[in-house]
């Protein structure tokens, strides 16, 4: 199966630098216009920073001026001051959430206006997804990014000021690895965003491929296209695996940034503790420094790395898609003129059909065929005999669930009988759910042909089956087909024309025309019945379909009957009941 979606599908989204600069160009004016919101955000965040400063500083003073000096009262007062600072910081954090909402909601409204405007201007089918899902993702992740970024900046500021206040030597030990860890993390943000976007793109392409293949598995199996379909799905799966591995490799850098910036400072403080104590650093200051690192800087850096590394990359990807300049699926259309209805030869190349022998073997022979879906199940077919000569037209009728589709699956080789033999010419099965893959119309129609199909033969098949009006509407054989935009009847016409072009002489229509109107159904069935060298088996759901057939097989559990329409009206009560139900009034018995 040919699938050309992979090339250039997301070319408009791969220039990360250009899009990121565009996002920044919109972000700065947005923030400048909302300075009244940024001021209270900064004020409440300073209260958080004061809490961070007070906790480490108060702990150091409680030890040096209190407990280590033998003054427990002073130590308790400093610890009480730290507790008050924690309460004030919690209050400030609560107020921050309300201010962040005042900043994020206008950003959401701006994105909604942009998405709706693009949808109206460009008739972008992806605008609804952008409005209902991606904008909400952008709002939630933007709020998370603002919270973790703001928290790290003010927490780090409070901790670093506290370290300097305790002793500048402590700051000299902690600051270099902290800056190195932040620098490593900042360097990974761009590559992480690109790998995240590549992974999402690969995941979407795999989902699209599976969504197109799964409804048509019976058709794929019947047409012998398992290998080509498996190769296409395997290619998408391998692409997603490669993208996931690339994302995982870059995620390791986040762990390294956290280890260098958050954990190494604590190790250095412990390693250099003797030297620090020998150069005037008090024990309380050293303990306060360890508190700053383990209780403030390390958690803040963890939130930044995990929050900004995940949510930030996700936000970047979503904003790229929401702020792109054009539709997401722009693909070059092949140059192809429109095909007017009726253009082309009226018959396929007569040289394709081999000369028939004087007494050709039957196209289909079932001998004592018995089939059940389980060892203890009642047989669906029991000792069935059926012979069809080449060129015959058989309609299969019976109540729902009686085994009509099971019969076509046995003939097509999808099922194996428990007893008996099935001998059939090469067959093509067209099920009720027609399979159409993304690609050109010609690629869909010639799926069963290994040789190039001349254009005149393709157009003749389309005219015979009744596809010509749709072919003209889509833009000709070279036009690209999106299965999601086709109706069920249009997909059935494409599948029928594909089967008509198949070299298999035996065509099995398992309610393959159920979504067509009676006139279109009649045209398609007559085309298959008149196909040179062809034999037709139709699972009928209309009385008109049964009456067009030369032979009719009535399935009724273990009892089956085969004959013409007139013969069965005389001999089969079930057939009379079925035709009465189809026509809406009792079928007349011939006199």
Give structural notes.
With 591 residues, the chain is α/β, with parallel strands linked by helices. It is built from 18 helices and eleven strands. It has helices at residues 16-32, 35-67, 72-122, 127-166, 168-213, 217-222, 226-271, 273-278, 283-322, 404-412, 441-445, 455-465, 468-474, 488-501, 518-529, 543-548, 565-571, 573-583, and strands spanning 364-371, 381-388, 393-397, 419-424, 427-430, 439-440, 480-481, 506-510, 535-539, 551-556, 559-563. The strands form three sheets. A six-stranded mixed sheet has the order 5-8-9-3-10-11, sandwiched between helices. Helix 15 links the parallel strand 8 and strand 9. Helix 2 runs antiparallel to helix 3 (72-122), helix 2 runs antiparallel to helix 9 and helix 12 crosses helix 14 (488-501). Mean pLDDT is 78; it is low at 1-20, 125-130, 325-353 and 584-591.
Outline:
This protein has helices spanning 16-32, 35-67, 72-122, 127-166, 168-213, 217-222, 226-271, 273-278, 283-322, 404-412, 441-445, 455-465, 468-474, 488-501, 518-529, 543-548, 565-571, 573-583, and strands spanning 364-371, 381-388, 393-397, 419-424, 427-430, 439-440, 480-481, 506-510, 535-539, 551-556, 559-563. The chain is an alpha/beta fold. Strand 10 (551-556) and strand 11 (559-563) form a beta hairpin.
